């Protein structure tokens, strides 16, 4: 069932409550109901930085003020294979807490709410949606069995529902890699090297020209960079990354 319809049906049966603090909220009509539909005003203000001054290349919040450069202090000198990162906010505070929650099967309604926020606040009407496919970062099958859900799939399917762009589970993670959050930046790059492959049997025998990779958090960019390198080696020309949060420095998810 379409995730938009599912959430609407659930909220007809159960009184609307903030997905973060569980406080009962009053819904408002129209597209601007997003704040009152999923989050109380206090949580919305804590979750969303608006206007967002994100780096157009790596997605990090630009702390150095206005700049005509494509790069910021966090990605200057980096050589990423992806072309653009779009994020809802920083991996900090309440949004950081929400990221940890959406890794649980029982919190996928929150994952869909954050994905809709990402679409409406950052993606809608932007060139970042000029892609043919939306695909999630895959999870190793053993970790999926342990966790019970891949929240990147939930986010990607929700973005597909709202944008109308085709959702395709196009990637396979064939290596049982270590958890990235336990590793240094260099170890993260080594950990995911060669870990992904294209599911050639899905949809078509040729990859699309443009793809959006979706995950919950981007930290060093090692995972999405490895996927983008693999994609471009088989003919994908442009790779956009969409994540709920962008972590910098010592942050990790």
Which properties best describe this structure?
253 residues, 15% strand, 35% helix, 7 strands, two-stranded antiparallel sheet, alpha/beta
User: Which oligomeric form is depicted?
Assistant: single chain
Domain count: 1
- H/I helix tally: 9
Radius of gyration: 18 Å
| Uncertain stretches of 5 or more adjacent residues | none
Strand adjacency order, main sheet: 1-7-6-2-3
- What is the overall silhouette? globular
Please indicate the percent range of residues in DSSP E strands (runs of 2 or more).
5-15%
**CATH fold assignment:** Rossmann fold
The count of β-strands is: 7
Distance between the termini: 29 Å
SSE series? HHHEHHEHHEEHEEHE
Proper CATH architecture? 3-Layer(aba) Sandwich
Structural class, judged by helices and strands? alpha/beta
The CATH class, by name, is: Alpha Beta
The biggest sheet, with number of strands, parallel, antiparallel or mixed sense and barrel status, is: 5 strands, parallel
- The helical percent reads 25-40%
The chain-level mean pLDDT equals 82
